Input
Amino acid sequence: MKTTGIVRKIDELGRIVLPKELRKSLNINSGDDFQITIEENKIILEKYSRLENFEEKITKIINCFISVTNYKIYFVINDKIINSNESIKDNISKLIQERKLYISDKIIKNQISDSIIEEGKMVIYPIVFDSDLLGSLILVSNDNINNIVNNSKILNNLIKSIVSKE
Output
């Protein structure tokens, strides 16, 4: 485990402020959930995602959609693309953080990560459950934009139904 050299005091309510540089480098945003564990004399904070528990099921559903639609579909949790473990680009992360459906109805080259560039129309659908941003779906295709949006909504609803059974 590497040390940062940063020292912080705990306030009277038991809070510690994480420095901005640390939050930025680890992509920690306001409202993110953390799992707290204790190991020997250490307190360990890990970003927690309810979707990670269902990653295998969700991936199977996404693969079914890919086989039927031929869309490029990326499942994103904590700015990482599941199954590739690549980080998404900052501009895509900002769109996801807005928690709004993003639609690009022009066929262009979309840079999803440093090594993933997909040409087509793009829909970014944040997965919000109980007001928590759990992750996101990114769909890219040359299909009619309304079809892409409708398929993204269906996929999003399937994912929410899996999470709601938790």
The mean pLDDT is 88.
